[in-house]
Amino acid sequence: MKNLKREISLSIDASGSVEQVNNYYAYGGLLNDVPASVDVQTHKYNGKELDTMHGLNLHDSQARQYDATIGMFTSMDPLCEKYYHISPYVYCGGNPVNRVDPDGRDFIIHYYYNNVEMTYTYMDGGANKSIPNNTFVKSVIQAYQYNKKNWIKAGYLEESPSILAATSKKYHVHIYQDFENKYSFGVRWNPNLGLLTETGVVLSPATSLDHEIDHAYQAQANNSQYKNDAKGPNRKDSQYDTKEERRVICGSEQKTSLANGERNNNQVTRKSHRGTPVIVPEITSTIADKAKTKQYENELYRRKTLWSSE
Predict the structure, then answer these.
(1) How far apart are CA 115 and CA 103, in angstroms?
(2) From the DSSP assignment, how many helices (H) and strands (E) are in the chain?
(3) Partners of 30 in beta bridges
(4) Preceding omega of 102 cis (within 30 degrees of 0)
């Protein structure tokens, strides 16, 4: 039987008798193991197999081995170049209470509950935990499902980076609530923020999320190309700032906006990497709320003033 963090906490036989009870320290060390032998059930912390051969006591986390005694992996994170501020050996960013590392590579979902950062992992078609009662988490999933439905209806399902990322165990996209954590990495998204472009098109928050996920997917699936087009010496593009922005704006953004009914066949979303943020009532909306947009602009100005004075 598993607890809320997918740790094997209880093993029973066919008759219902308890054979083994496991309790854990925060980083996965066993508090007790009844009986002491691990032969009854070798899967322990996070549901990973505990390899006791030669007394090493390492958890097999697929991408690498985890040592619960020191709370660290024994090899470097294969995605460590994405997160220079985190040790490549550290587990769950040093926060094992609120986070889970499902395959030794990454952790995904970030939201706040009573001002405490929490995580929730979502995989389309996977065995997901119950969705927390959190507006931001629900908005992310709703936006993804909305985009997916319309991509399928439009007939270009297999080309969607969002769907490829959400259905793959290999790629992990991190989504943060915009401006909640200025030290965050990955996709930052505001479920109430649309974008008014110079062509008169308003991109919904759902389309904006798909745009950002495309960048995140490219950074993992085609990392060398992403580095060249987004950060390399030849990255500049006279129209869209960088070649990476051109790729996304001229590619998935056009398809998603058309599938979501935000432009017609004779329009393009924009002819530059520019746009005016607008507040909309819901994640699929393209109707700007002028009063709330003005409040948002004032708040941005206030924050900019505070940041400049620090």
Answers:
(1) 27
(2) 7, 16
(3) 24
(4) no
Backbone phi, psi, residue 66, to 5°: -115, 130
Which residues 6+ apart lie within 8 Å of 172 measured at CB? 79, 105, 106, 107, 108, 165, 220
- For β-strands 187-189 and 193-196, DSSP reports them as unpaired
| C-beta of residue 178 within 8 angstroms of C-beta of residue 190 | yes
Threshold 0.85, pTM exceeds: no
The DSSP bridge pattern shows strands 187-189 and 276-279 to be unpaired
pLDDT digits (tens, 9 = 90+) for 155-212: 876 667 887 777 666 777 888 887 544 444 578 899 999 999 999 999 999 999 999 9
User: How distant, in Å, are the alpha carbons of 85, 180, 183 from that of 310?
Assistant: 22, 18, 16
Torsion of the alpha carbons at 5, 214, 145 and 62, rounded to the nearest 10: -30
175, 181, 183, 185: CA torsion to nearest 10: 0
The structure tokens listed for 269 are: 């979303």
Give the DSSP letter string of 164-231.
Answer: HHHT-SS----EEETTT-TT--SEEE-TTEEEE-TTS-EE-HHHHHHHHHHHHHHHHHTHHHHHHHHT
Structure tokens at 140: 């992310």
Q: Can you tell me the distance from the alpha carbon of 25 to that of 37, in angstroms, rounded to the nearest whole number?
A: 18
Q: Which residue has the tokens 């439905």?
A: 149
Q: Per-residue pLDDT tens for 235-263?
A: 999 999 999 999 999 999 999 999 999 99
User: In the numeric block, which tokens belong to residue 46?
Assistant: 């996070």
Cα–Cα dist 235/227, whole Å: 9
- Amino acid letter, 162: S
DSSP H helical segments within the chain, as ranges?
A: 135-154, 161-166, 205-221, 223-230, 243-250, 252-259, 290-309
Q: Which amino acid is at 51?
A: D
Question: Tokens 């006791």 identify what position?
Answer: 52
